[in-house]
């Protein structure tokens, strides 16, 4: 078993944090996506979407997409339950993770891919106006999250879950995307400091 990743990319980091919270050790194989490693026939065979991370099981089965990989390990080791407990708990985690994945991380990623000069050869065409527009979209979602965190310790309630992992990675990725976190978002700042102090955040 191994996980193919590019360490600096946000989605592989989500998996690393998830595994660290679970206490699961999996070997990682590093590839350089900036040099076109994901475009090779072998990588395309493993994941036709040409993205990392990719989980390769001992029998050769491959699982890509970040949340699919996390769900696999949740089934293997249910505790601590990072997708929630009970029907309503799991639905709530799914809701907030989806909001943070599509509403925050996607906008931050689009801002990075369409405005950062280093991404010009990978994001073709690179539309800077679209990148700039996504910065405000990300901040709008962050303001919504700040309101939610006024009454919750964590993103999806009173327990740390995969929704916190997605959100932390998204907010940390705002730095290379050049999107400052507004000082007025005190609840987000409090939450960020707390989850960043967890040992898993350094995975």
Question: Can you give a write-up of this model?
Answer:
This protein has 203 residues and is of the alpha+beta class. The protein folds into 2 domains: 75 residues, 3-Layer(aba) Sandwich (Glutaredoxin), CATH 3.40.30; 117 residues, Up-down Bundle (Glutathione S-transferase Yfyf (Class Pi), Chain A, domain 2). 52% of the residues lie in helices and 6% in strands. The chain is built from 7 helices and 4 strands; from the N terminus they run βαβαββααααα. Strands 2-1-3-4 form a 4-stranded mixed beta sheet, with helices on one face. A hairpin with a 5-residue loop joins strand 3 and strand 4. Helix 4 runs parallel beside helix 6. The longest helix is centred in the middle third of the chain and has 30 residues. The chain is globular, with a radius of gyration of 17 Å.
Level of helix content? 40-55%
Highest CATH level, the class of the largest domain: Mainly Alpha
Low-pLDDT residue intervals, each spanning 5 or more residues: none
Count of helical segments?
A: 7
**Tell me, what's the shape?**
globular
Query: Would you list the SSEs in sequence order as H and E?
Result: EHEHEEHHHHH
CATH architect. name of the largest domain? Up-down Bundle
Main β sheet profile:
4 strands, mixed
| Spatial strand order of the main sheet | 2-1-3-4
Number of separate structural domains: 2
Distance separating the two termini = 18 Å
Indicate the proportion of strand residues: 5-15%
Structural class call reads alpha+beta
């Amino acid at each position: 078993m191994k996980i193919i990743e590019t360490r600096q990319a946000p989605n592989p980091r989500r998996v690393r944090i998830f595994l660290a919270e679970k206490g699961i050790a999996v070997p990682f194989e590093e590839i350089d996506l900036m040099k076109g490693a994901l475009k090779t026939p072998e990588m395309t065979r493993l994941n036709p979407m040409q993205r990392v991370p990719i989980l390769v099981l001992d029998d050769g089965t491959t699982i890509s997409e970040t949340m699919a990989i996390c769900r696999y390990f949740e089934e293997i080791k249910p505790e601590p339950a990072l997708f929630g407990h009970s029907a309503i708990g799991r639905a709530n985690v799914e809701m907030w993770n989806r909001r943070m994945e599509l509403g925050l991380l996607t906008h931050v990623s689009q801002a990075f891919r369409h405005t950062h000069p280093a991404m010009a050869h990978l994001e073709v065409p690179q539309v800077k106006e679209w990148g700039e527009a996504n910065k405000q979209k990300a901040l709008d979602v962050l303001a919504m999250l700040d309101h939610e965190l006024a009454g919750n310790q964590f993103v999806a309630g009173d327990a740390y879950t995969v929704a916190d992992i997605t959100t932390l990675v998204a907010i940390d990725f705002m730095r290379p995307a050049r999107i400052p976190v507004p000082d007025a978002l005190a609840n987000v700042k409090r939450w960020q400091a707390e989850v960043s102090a967890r040992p898993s955040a350094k995975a």
